Amino acid sequence: MPTTVTFFPVDNGDMTLIRLGDVDATTILIDVNIRADADDPNSKVRDVAKDLRGQLKKDADGRPYVDAFLLSHPDQDHCRGLTRHFHLGPLADYPDDDKEYKDKKIVIRELWSSPIVFRRASKNHTLCDDAKAFSKEARRRVQVNKDHYFAVSDGDRIQLMGKDIEGKTDDLVSIVRPVDKAFNTICGRTSNFFSAFLLAPIDASTDEEVEECLVKNQSSVIINFTLAADDNTPDGAKFLSGGDAEVFIWNRQWDRHKKDPSVLEYDLMQTPHHCSWHSLSYDSWSDKGEDAKLDADARKALSQTRSGAVIVASCKPIKDDDSDPPCIRAKREYVAIVDDAEGKFYCTGEYPKASEEEPMVFTVTAQGVALAQRREAGSKAAAFTSTTLTPLPHGAA
């Protein structure tokens, strides 16, 4: 099977699955937003939990699993449904072995979490129950790694995205992934099918004003993944994922990397914050409209396309009004960015059309990314497979 990236239609929220083309079909899930209506068979809301399980493998005990789960930041629209659909706690306590597969909770073999992102988020608002449960599970796994580092197994593994404040992660070097460095380990193994360059969270600053800006601008994990098409094509496509990071953070990204912008280059990007204008401007779209000023450096950070680049907005249908997110003016900027690269812009809430949303699957090829999908009418969660369409080729970096 080829490497694929699937964007699930979850309204204004994120839920993205990378499935590598290695022999283990290794999976990396970025955020989850499974609304309660998605579990209701009488609702028209897409059953994305069923869609997700359809892409996962089972372990030796018949349990569905993801190899890694990354929470970009702990807002509810990025972790909703976590406790309802995923097993948290030791695998010895897994409760669903006697249930049907569709009702079994999904095992998370390895968590990818950022303590500094949680710390910043909790300063801004009260964490939802799913976010608190994730934080508790992350702390449990960190403690297991402290106590039994050389004997940690799947279900207890964790990698920390960036350092925490005041040296709190100094004794966890083995599981901390530094900012502005790449890593390619997952579940204790090195992979030749992906590399993850960690761009953010930006490390804690002693400048209180800077740190306050990082808090207010939705500090999120930002990773630029390099995904292999096959054994012979380690750089099939680059996928840039940035949670809800807003304008100050993207402005800082350009300031940090403008001398080597290759670390920001992408073939596929998920728009930050559900196509919000706040990722491109300090001004309010609803207040200022067309007079809202675009931040040139933030746009540059988000414009490092390779030829044929694709941008996907994970959000509800984008309307020409004063809503934000999604914001019509942000869409116009992203469309202009991909037009310059001879690429395409998509919205999950409009694919293939607003009344009949389906997961959007991109296949990584030696020529870049190719959109692939199959529809079956009349089903709330119709099966879909990766049927390759016309590739969208990228040029050399």
Going by CATH, what is the homologous superfamily? Ribonuclease Z/Hydroxyacylglutathione hydrolase-like
Fold-level CATH name: Metallo-beta-lactamase, Chain A
Number of helices: 10
Shape: globular
The number of E-state strands comes to 24
- Unreliable spans: 381-397
CA(first)-CA(last) distance: 26 Å
Rg to the nearest angstrom?
Answer: 20 Å
Instruction: Give the percentage of residues in beta strands.
Output: 15-25%
Structural class: alpha/beta
List the helices and strands and how they pair.
Blueprint: E1 4-7, E2 16-19, E3 27-30, E4 32-33, H1 48-55, E5 57-58, E6 64-66, E7 68-70, H2 76-79, H3 82-85, E8 86-87, E9 106-108, E10 110-113, H4 115-124, H5 129-148, E11 157-161, E12 176-177, E13 181-183, E14 185-186, E15 189-190, E16 194-200, H6 208-216, E17 222-227, E18 237-241, H7 247-257, E19 266-270, H8 285-288, H9 296-301, E20 305-313, H10 328-340, E21 344-347, E22 360-365, E23 368-372, E24 388-393
Give me some keywords for this one.
397 residues, alpha/beta, Metallo-beta-lactamase, Chain A, seven-stranded mixed sheet, 10 helices, 24 strands
Describe the structure in your own words.
This protein has 397 residues and is an alpha/beta fold. The chain has one domain: Ribonuclease Z/Hydroxyacylglutathione hydrolase-like (Metallo-beta-lactamase, Chain A). Helix content is 22%, strand content 25%. It has ten helices and 24 strands. The strands form four sheets. A ten-stranded mixed beta sheet has the order 12-11-10-7-3-2-1-22-23-24, covered by helices on one side. Strands 13-16-17-18-19-20-21 form a seven-stranded mixed beta sheet, with helices on one face. The chain has a four-stranded mixed beta sheet with strand order 5-6-9-8. β18, α7 and β19 form a beta-alpha-beta unit. The protein is globular and about 60 Å long. It starts with a strand and ends with a strand. The C terminus is likely disordered.
